[in-house]
């Protein structure tokens, strides 16, 4: 499963979530998946390198 598919599934689950705890868990998972996708995109574009930023 690609990261984009995972994000779309989490968004669909969030739309259908009934309980507050379930919504909170899905929101946390979605935030992590979105952050992971941003890192992947940055690595692909060469924005992030393997060297530390200092």
From TrEMBL:
This is Uncharacterized protein. It comes from the Bacteria.
